[in-house]
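Reopening: C-alpha cells for the nicotinamide-adenine-dinucleotide complex, inputs below.
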Amino acid sequence: MRKILVTGGLGYVGCVLVEELLKQGYFVNVIDLGIYGINLNKNKNLKLFIGDIRDQKLFQESVKGCDTVIHLACISNDPSFDLNPELGKSINLDAFRPIVEISKKEGVSRFVYASSSSVYGIKDEENVDETFSLEPLTDYSKYKAECEKILKEYQSPNFTTTILRPATVCGYSPRQRFDLVVNILTNLAYNRGSISVFGGTQLRPNIHIKDMVNAYLQIIQTSEHKINGQTFNVGFQNMPVLEIANLVKNSFKRNINISIEETDDNRSYHISSKKIENQLNFKIKYTVDDAIKDIIESFEKKKFKNSLENENYFNIKKMNSINLK
Ligand SMILES: NC(=O)c1ccc[n+]([C@@H]2O[C@H](COP(=O)([O-])OP(=O)(O)OC[C@H]3O[C@@H](n4cnc5c(N)ncnc54)[C@H](O)[C@@H]3O)[C@@H](O)[C@H]2O)c1
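Re-run output (same inputs, fresh job):
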C-alpha cells in the first residue's frame, strides 16, 4: 500500500484528508507545527512529525519511504501572512524548493501542491479557467504562483507534479476554521442571530471540504499521464456573498437578521472548474448548503468551544498569539 506525506496534515483541510486517507488504507505521515492542536485519531498507520517544514532534516525524515507528497502547509490566508511577511515568505516560498528537492531525492514519485484560485487576481471574464494569466494581488497569492513555477522545473516522467487551485473551502473539520466566508457567516448567525454583509454582490467561488478532500484523493489515484504537469481549478458554486448570507439565514428556523454595509471593496472572484470535471471525471457531491447544515449540526452537538473568540478557529488570532519566528 502507498505511503503519503501530508504537510499541514493537522490543518483545516489536512485533518479531514488524513482521516480519509487512513480510512482508505494508506499509510500516512504528517508534518505540521501542531499549533492548532492534534485533531487526528490515533492510528497505527499514521506517523506524526511535529515540527517545521523549514527544518530540512525533519522534513527529510518525514518524507522517507513515501511515494507521494501532498503539500498543504503554509501561512494560509492574507491577514496572517501580512502579520509577518518575512515569516510568511520563509514558509510559503523559501521552504518550497528544498521540500521539492528533498522529496525527489528521497524517491517520491508524485507531488501535489495546494495553490489557490486567488492566483488569478480579479478578472472581468465569466469563467476563469486554468489558461488565464496569473495576476496575484497579495503576497500570499504571489508566492503561491511562484511555487507553481518552481514545481514545474522539477516535473519529469518519474516525478509527477500536479497543482490544484482550490476555491474557498467551507464546512466542518475537527480543526475548524471560522475565518472563511461560509463558515464565518454560519458562526455569526448561530451565535449572534445576525449577519453583516459588506457589499454583497461580490462573487466568491466555494468548495465543500469533503469535495476538496475527494479532489486530492482522485489526483493521487489517477494515472500519471493524465495529471503529470497539470493544473486544475477546484471549485463549485460561484456565489454572491449576499446569496451565501441568505442561504445561511434560510437554514435556521428562527429569524436571522442580515444587514448590508457599504464597502469600496467590490472585488469579485469566479473560477471555472470544468477541466477537472471533463478531463478526470471529477464529480462534485456537496453544496454550500450542505456545508452550512454540517456546521449547524456541529454547533448543536457542542463540537466548538467559544467559537467567536477561540484562537484555534482563526488563523490570524493564532499567529498573533504564538509569535512564530
Ligand atoms: N481553506 C481554504 O479555503 C483554501 C483555499 C485555497 C487554498 N488553500 C490552501 O490549502 C492548504 C490548506 O489550507 P487549510 O485551510 O487547511 O489551512 P490551515 O491553516 O488550516 O492549515 C495549514 C497547516 O499548516 C501548518 N503549518 C503552517 N506553517 C507550517 C510550518 N512552517 N511547518 C509545518 N507546518 C506548518 C499549520 O500548523 C496548519 O496546521 C493551504 O496551502 C492553503 O493555502 C486553502
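The longest strand covers residues 160-166. The pocket of nicotinamide-adenine-dinucleotide is lined by residues 8, 10-14, 31-33, 35-36, 52-54, 72-76, 91, 114, 116, 166, 168-169, 177, 180, 315 (CB under 6 Å). Marking as resolved unless the reporter disagrees.
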